[in-house]
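FAQ: What does the model actually see?

It sees only this:
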Amino acid sequence: MGIITLLMNFVFVLVIYCFIFSIIRLIYMDIKSINYYISNSNGKHPYLKLINQREMLNFRIEETYLLTKECSIGRDAKSDIIIKDPFISSQHAQIVKKEGIYYIKDTGSKNGTFVNDNPLKIGFEWRLNNGDKIRLGQVEFLFVDILSKA
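And it is asked to produce this:
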C-alpha cells in the first residue's frame, strides 16, 4: 500500500509541475510577442493579436501581425497576412486605414468575416476600435490600437 501511495504522490506532483510549466510557457510566449511588437513598431502601429492557442490549430500562424495602411488577409501567397486555415478564402478580407481610422471589409469570402460576433456583409467596411474581436475561419484576433481615439 505504501508504494502505491508514493507512486500516486509522484504522479500528482508531476501533473502539478506540468501545469505550472504550461502556464509559465504561455506567459513567456505572450511577453515575447509583445516585445516583438514593441521592437518592430515602436508602439506606433496597430496590430492583430492572436486569441487562439497556436497549438490547437493545425497550421502555422504568428502571435502578432503588424498592420500597415492597407493589409490583405487570406490563404493566397500574394496576401499581406497569409493564413493557411482551410476555412479562410484565398482573398478573405482587407484592412485599410482611412484618415487615421482602420476599417475591415470582407472581400468575398465563403465562410464570412465577423467582428465582435457580427457578420460583415461582403464589401461593407466596418470601423475597427481598440479591443474589437475579429474572426476569420478558425482564427480569432484582437485588434489592438493603443493610439486610437475611439
